[in-house]
Specification:
mainly alpha
């Protein structure tokens, strides 16, 4: 279970970067096929590469981009589609989506810090009390 949570967290961390890379490549004037091949070459994680290839194949088959983009996200986190999904400018859609998930990731990290720090202090206090009791200081 913890391994799945860590894998999902890693997926979430990679998603905004993927969106920004693809958006920047499309802004430079590259076509979608070339942009995907460049992103695939840059990706080192084999499972993430496989998911990107799946999206690329589905796009080339004519399926909508926004429906297939959710393959790169954890299962419990649905793809946030704003009004940019209806705009034909794919690079704008990708940059907006990347920004949204970047902020979402920042909020999750902030929440984890707020939870972990008090737990660390509590465990340190309990350790100090146990040492006092054990050594009868």
């Amino acid at each position: 279970m913890i391994k799945n949570i860590l894998n999902d967290y890693q997926l979430l961390k990679k998603f905004p970067t993927f969106c920004f890379k693809l958006s920047n490549l499309l802004n430079t004037g590259l076509d979608l096929r070339t942009a995907f091949s460049i992103v695939l070459k840059d990706e080192e994680n084999k499972s993430y590469q496989h998911k990107i290839k799946q999206i690329q194949q589905k796009l080339l088959a004519g399926e909508p981009f926004s429906k297939n983009l959710s393959l790169l996200l954890p299962q419990y986190l649905p793809l946030h589609l704003s009004q940019t999904d209806r705009i034909p400018d794919l690079s704008l859609f990708l940059s907006e989506t990347g920004e949204y998930y970047k902020n979402k990731l920042k909020n999750i990290n902030h929440l984890l810090f707020k939870i972990n720090y008090p737990l660390f202090l509590l465990s340190l206090t309990l350790l100090a009390i146990a040492l006092f009791i054990f050594f009868q200081i």
